[in-house]
TrEMBL record:
This is P-loop containing nucleoside triphosphate hydrolase protein. It is a multi-pass membrane protein. The chain crosses the membrane at residues 33-51, 71-89, 95-116, 128-150, 312-336, 412-433, 491-514, 520-541, 887-915, 935-959, 1008-1029, 1035-1052, 1116-1137, 1143-1164. It holds the Pfam family TMD0_ABC. Belongs to the ABC transporter superfamily. ABCC family. Conjugate transporter (TC 3.A.1.208) subfamily. SMART domains: AAA.
Amino acid sequence: MLDFSGCVDDDSFGPAVRGCRDDFDFTIKFEKIFFSLIPTSIFIAVALARVAHLTRNPSIVGGSLLRAAKLIAISAYTIIQLALLILSITKSRKFASFFIPSDALALASALCMLLLSNLEHLRSPRPSILLSAYLFIALLFDIAHVRTLWLASTNSDELVLSRLWTSGVAVKASLIVLESQSKARWIVRWDVKEHSPEETSGLYGLGAYLWLNRLFLTGYRKILDLHDLFPLDRNMSSEVLQTRYAGRIDVRQVKGKHGLARALTKALAVPLLYPVGPRIALGAFHFCQPFLIETLLGYLERPASESSQNLGYGLIGASVLIYVGIAASGAFYWYYQERAMYMVRGLLVGTIYRATIEAELTAGGDSEALTLMSTDVERIISGCLNLHEFWANTIEVALACWLLSRQIGPAFVAPLIVIGACVVCSAALAKFTGPRQKEWMGKIQKRVGLTSGIIGQMKHLKISGLAEPVEESIQTMRVDELNSGARFRTVLVLAAVVGFTPLCLSPVITFAFAARTLDVTLIFTSISYITLLATPLGTLFQAVPQLLGALTCLSRIQAFLEKEAHADFRSFHGLPRPNQATAEEKPRPESLNSQTTAKVKVTNGNFGWHTEKLSLRDIDLEIPSSCLTIVVGPVASGKSTLCKALLGEIPVSQGEVIMAPNSNRKIGYCDQTPYLSNATIRENIVGFSPFDQQRYEEVIEATMLGPDLSILPQGDNTNVGSNGVTLSGGQKQRVSMARALYLDTDFYVFDDILSGLDADTEEQVFLRVFSSTSLIRRRHATAVLCTHSVRHLPSADHIIALGQDGTIVEQGTFQELLANEKYVHNLGVTERGPLLGDDSVPESKKLEKSALKALPRSKPTAASSKVEGQARATGDWAVYRHYFSRIGALCLTALVVLGIGGGFFLNFGTIWLKFWSEDVASPNPSRFNGFYNGVYALLQTGALASLFSVAMVGFRSVVNISGAKLHREALNTVFNAPLKFFTITDTGVVTNLFSQDMTLIDGQLPMAMINVILAAFACIGMAAVIATASPYLALTYPILFAAMYVLQMFYLRTSRQIRLLDLEAKSPLYSHFIDTIKGIATFRAFGWIQEGVSRNDRLLDTSQRPAYLLAMIQRWLGFTLQLIVAVLGLAVVTLSTQLRSNTAFTGASLVTLMAFGENLFSIIRFYTMLETSIGAVSRLKSFSENVKPESREGEDVVPPKEWPLKGAIQISGVSASYGSDDDAQGETASPPEHLALNDLHLDISPGEKVAICGRSGSGKSSLLLLLLRLLDPLPTSTSMTHPPEITIDSIPLSKIHRPSLRNRVIAIPQDAVFLPDGSSVQSNLDPLGQSTAADCRSALEAVGLWDFVASRGGMEAGMSPETFSQGQRQLFSLARAILRRRARARERAAEAGEKVVADGGVLLLDEVSSSVDLDTDGAMQRIIMQEFAGYTIVMVSHRLGMVMAFDRVVVMEQGRIVETGRPRELAELEGSRFRELWLVGNKGRS
């Protein structure tokens, strides 16, 4: 019979048995309830729910042999359980009420296992986590129960029962092995390369991070790239996250404070709840440590003869369970927590992009979206990482207080006093956290946005001579940002000190209250409870500012998402036929034929960018379908606003804009400022559209790009660079036009896209795109062209003339408007003859097919984005030296000295407790308790002071000094980089340096360095304290340190590389954000919204891969180090129980061991963080070293202040190429077909006015760049034996300091540039501060802009370039040049005294009037001739009207000077190239 009568205590609840089995066992009743009934019942309930879920999934896995083995093993287990049930029913008496229900539930669980295992195998890609968890827990319980049964068995029936249970344990063990096998090889339609091994890992693979092993091996053996990394888990991909959760975080539906935070928590509730279970287990294991310490010290205090050997073995087993349990539960907790955080990142970045692409044009700039998706999201992840610690630590603090009260009685109130004070301090600090972080983030956003925008404008900045003021302005913003960040970091430092205060001071105050009852066990057990009380509090106090910072960032994102989205006010319901107009409608313009259908109709339209100031008023017009409509008007009359209104992009609109029925929503749109991404010409033209060779060649020919492509080094595979820096203004406009024409649509809108073209190219492009036989006509498409080239008006089917006040002056056909004798009539344009046909196009203009060959493309690569060779894996100490040199010896010394002090004070206090406890326990104490507690208080206070000091030095001094210096160096590198750098470097790469890398240098890098210093010295002391428990333990340290060294070497080789990949993978994502923001109107017009979103999702997933894997391998490291701590704990307990160690030293060792694991993990984790975040310094160092400055050795001559006084220019045998190496000294010139300038010879006399003409891409702007040393001449000439040379006033430009050259030569670029948004009008006009407000006003009056500026606040008002039209921006640039000329004249006069000084110099003009109307063009010409009468002027212009007043004209073709002479003489000379241009440009003019 199954009576188990050998122990009368077995039928009691227990839990421990008394009077038998050496008093070291549980009772049978307790085991049946807690080891069998409860876990089995829970499993059955959860298993049935899982089965119901799996039945809805399809079968995806094969592997019949593995499946059969599982089913056979479970069937065997089921038979054993059936036998046990039968035995229990027939034989049990005393324990029948427990045996029978227990075995019945076990049989039911076996049947559930049979069903669940089969379904899990067939329908889930990973091994069953539920089965694995249940089998593992049940196996542990069963082992304990089997031991009890064997020890309690006294008859044959009981022995049979024990044998059956033992068999069941063996089968369960085999089931664990079978259920943990990967099924990846048998999954149907499963490409391993497209899936992460994480997706097919089971419980043990996930918990021990075994799925990362292959990555570690790969990283150890080779240099990793993105292709070596595991794909992102499908459930974490952006597309899946947006599909599942995007609707739940719509902030427009969740209003109020922290609405986004609430919505995000609700949406991701399940992933955020996964860590709860492991966190509870982790807390439970932590609280087992004081019980272990108390029991062990009590065991050691008793004589060996009175101690049970089994209790010693039990303590060893308990130590294994506790320390391994801490490692395992911590591993699962952080795995699920990191996974949830990166789901948050993917969801937020994807949502920010979608809001960006749907935002109004005026809703934000680069800085806002870029900063939100980078810096803000990263701070949200770091701030929310400890989210579960708030509830868990609160519970642990309460529990620790209760346990401490049981230990020391009323004295437990003492630490609560300290805690209360800390809570008050923490609450006070919390008030500063949000505002200070918000201020800091705002300044980061402003600086990053400005830097991002400046990169694409670098050429024009240098031409304008604004590079140095802008560089200084950005550096000033950086210093201001660092100061704001220092104020926020001070809050973090104080929060850390508050967090450590309970740990340092609570024991002191507690022992002061409980001094009379202290002994060895009480002291060290109390310390363990205080550690459990103070450690979570420290985490809480430090996590509060981080969480508040995360909430601030979430609020910033919420505010961005709540902004008004772009609302397309256009109606696509269709237009009535002309004869269906109602009585209420205004009469239609009589110019449209009665049978013509309108493509667009605008009724009572009022449009503008601000509610208080409309740009267009009372607009009533119709755009005829399949016709060409030309819009003309003076500067700032609203032409660009009208284009945006046709696109539905104006934020302020009234009236109706109705599109034709069945109208294609895609519109081929060309902005006035061409939007180009940093890609090849072909990629820019094709965009997201499918490639069609015939259509592609068609648009290349129509836009006259063939000749340009034929002279480019890589044809249409040439990279255009940031903002198209490789291309001329005309080429950029034609590439933009080709992209619009390539789009499959029937409606095109072109905003002033002819302004940058020479007369010949403009004529040919107009002929091929807009004429009666053009590409658009053949497609029966509708086109709207806004232009200042009024000579094309006779070709228009419909003309709309806008007035200065934003109203329509007149509209109709050309003939009708001529008869009106209004605006169009006054332009002096006459009816033109028939346009040239295609056959008359010169052969040189025909499409060059060779230019369209798929030439090999050298992908854009930044020197800054790579750390060469093995340095990626093994690190580079030169980087540390570079960083330390930027910190300074004083700060570095202070950090080390304070770190040593912290390590000493923190650990010697524990040793002091050993001396105190032994003295207290002795019959005759040598000192009173006050003495020991006073010294202890001094040591603890010293530890706290050391922490505060090292943190303040690190987070304030180190960050401010190194941050400013490293930023200055990187900024200087960018501003001194040659133009070629901006053609081969993606904007996102450079932006990443100033965003992500600077964020690391300001935050993660100093934090890692400080923590490494503190943890390293703390661990050295802790190791010494732990070794005091047994001298034998110290013998294991060399082995332990060797193992850790191998571990970190193995780990660091991979983590370094993945961190660098993480930084590099973000650059394309940043670039795509920048491209989208700059070209948002183009994206929406082209219908590229979904394609842009899809590309963003792909790039986001790519950037998530290294970031997520880096987080996972850091958690793998934590798990591995906790296992090392488990080994140490096992060693301490084993040696102390078997060798009977000193009780006080053992207590000190075990108390220290509680924190040793965390500190050990901190050393390697923070050292790894240091190694990976130092990658930011490495990237900046590599950037500064590899990006060679444009200045060369010997260019150090700074001319006298009055230079150039005469302005004599001489160019002798100069050739230049954009594709040549900047440092190619002594090499031969590039092949002629790739030269931007070819063998130039040009002499310009002082004061001479020279115009440079030629077709677009002929080298005109390159000549100006050459004079400003933005384009370097080749070292040898193609036709001369002596070196080429350029001189101004007899000084060779090759010897002049380049910034000085650009400051002395006044130049106006084609695209106007300005100081950062918010800078005053006066500072923009006079960036060097050389003139008074009156002087600035006078310059603005000279160009006719003063009234406009005055209406917007005057000189001191903040200036936003977006409020100026394109023409007004060019006028502003002219005013700046006038002001510089006048300031220079005053300076020369002041130095000369009474002597008369000639007002001379050099003025370079690059298409300064391309975006103004003819009247303004004439006014600008008069102003230039009057203001710069004594200057040598070199002007590039396509408007030949301005050229006729010049002394000489130089005609260029394919980089050569083909003709030179007086313009009027050449215009009358038959066969001259200038005459051809003149005739084309004046066709149709009276």
